[in-house]
Specification:
Radius of gyration: 23 Å
Largest sheet: none
Order of helices and strands: HHHHHHHHHHHHH
Oligomer: single chain
Shape: globular
Number of strands: 0
Mean pLDDT: 86
Helix content: over 70%
Number of domains: 3
Distance between the termini: 63 Å
């Protein structure tokens, strides 16, 4: 077993028997990685990646198994720390207009957004673990860390940038070759439109993930009766819904859940999502879901 995996096993055991808390174990792990990450070999990294893959998703569930819970959280935090050290550091430019971004800058924005999303998801996973282990203060701290990611995630209009990102320049072709392509129906303009549609779809997916994350943060604060922070997360959720006139997430139940949470905060955003949910439930032939969404729409209109 590698030194890193052995350390995680030892820390898991010490938290399990109560000789240290999970928060202390996370701090010890972070200090060890700061001191020893450069010494990790390729085989060490592969061994850690293989053990991480066995844990699966971002949000660990206790299921009465605190060993798996603690182990998975420590490994997720380790993965995050190693990724931060490996990642190329750059500052995303904040242009005043969406059409000022180059293709390379758009790719950077998407990359940084994905990193922020993953960081916030891991913060929530760690917060959930603290909740399940009964550490209320640590649960709140990690939820606050996840909440702190949301303003930056919501600031840049990814879809507008994608819609204005310039297409790649067409290749230089001899006149006869270009004429031949035109004769067989090939169009560089259509190719550029297809390319832009792909960028917009990518941006819309990213926005959907941010909205789902913001809603999850809000619900997590609601669960610990922290209304002020829950409302802050829900307002960010509503802001994104209104900016994009709904969501492109193809999951009506998720839309309905978010709409229900937004009902007391921002009725227009709640109405927009509830109407979208109605349409998707209807297409899917889900009468129960449709009736629930329609009831929410009617309540918002009354």
């Amino acid at each position: 077993m590698t030194a890193l995996n052995q350390l995680i096993d030892n820390l898991t055991g010490s938290v399990l028997i109560g000789s240290r808390g999970l928060e202390q174990a996370l701090g010890l792990l972070e200090r060890w990685i700061n001191d020893h990450a450069a010494e990790l070999t390729g085989e060490d990294r592969q061994a850690f990646s293989a053990s991480l893959a066995q844990n699966g998703a971002y949000t660990p569930v206790a299921n009465g198994d605190n060993v798996s819970l603690i182990d998975s959280v420590l490994k997720l935090h380790t993965a995050r720390l190693l990724h931060r050290m490996d990642a190329v550091s750059f500052e995303v430019l904040r242009h005043t207009a969406a059409d000022d971004y180059t293709r390379e800058e758009f790719a950077q924005v998407i990359n940084v957004t994905e990193q922020e999303l993953n960081d916030a998801r891991i913060d929530i996973a760690i917060a959930n673990a603290h909740h399940l282990l009964g550490d209320v203060a640590a649960n709140r701290r990690w939820l606050q860390s996840a909440l702190d990611h949301l303003p930056d995630l919501a600031t840049i209009d990814l879809v507008a940038i994608a819609e204005h990102t310039p297409p790649p320049p067409p290749p230089r072709l001899a006149p006869l070759k270009r004429l031949g392509l035109n004769l067989i129906g090939f169009s560089f303009n259509r190719l550029a439109q297809y390319d832009r549609a792909n960028l917009v779809s990518m941006a819309q997916h990213q926005v959907g993930q941010i909205v789902i994350l913001a809603h999850l943060v809000g619900e997590s604060f609601n669960a610990i009766h922290d209304t002020r922070r829950a409302q802050r997360a829900f307002r960010i959720t509503a802001h994104l819904v209104l900016r994009h006139n709904g969501l492109t997430v193809n999951d009506p139940q998720t839309m309905l859940d978010i709409a229900t949470s937004l009902q007391p905060i921002e009725t227009q955003a709640a109405y927009t999502l509830a109407e979208q949910a109605c349409d998707l439930f209807k297409r899917a032939g889900d009468s129960d879901g449709y009736n629930q969404a329609r009831a929410l729409v009617n309540a918002l209109l009354s």
